[in-house]
Amino acid sequence: MHAMQYEITLPADYDMGVIHRRVATRGHLLDDFPGLGLKAYLVRERAAGAPVNQYAPFYLWAAPEGMNAFLWGPGFQGIVDDFGRPRVRHWAGAAYGEGPAAGAAPQHAVRRRERIGADERPADAVARAVEAHGRLVREDGLVAAAVAVDPSRWELLEFSLWAGAAPAGAGEAFRVLHLSQPGRAALRPGRHWD
Fold it and tell me: What is the pTM of this model?
């Protein structure tokens, strides 16, 4: 599993209806994309209390070939053509799990990033994150969650989808406009090594 996200931060007075219409008319195009586990079409909006207007799709790829086909194909080129070329972050998958609300349509997402300190053993940090993930996937309202690592920055990523409101203080909250999930069943539960 590979996690991937890009953020398009928009002006404070940007009409976020443009993004809503974009997702409503184009979101379904990835509903059967090969190699894609899931794509959450995420937004943050100043009108709803967020610090910025932002379009920030988040992907979990079941296969790297799918990620490559998207990035080097017409899908991502549409983003580049409309908004410029955003920086694409990606993380190696460490764990994935479905929650008690796995069958529900997610309404919100939470992203939490944490640096692995220079004095902490990377294996210990990842083990700690995967252990916390094991508790998270049992929380009421959780649809699905993943843990991933960017070893170029020594950064842990925890991403979660929620059927209702995002838990307060859990991280950066986003609203989910659409979820494409053609290969969600191919995202292996549990930790992703051994």
Answer: 0.96
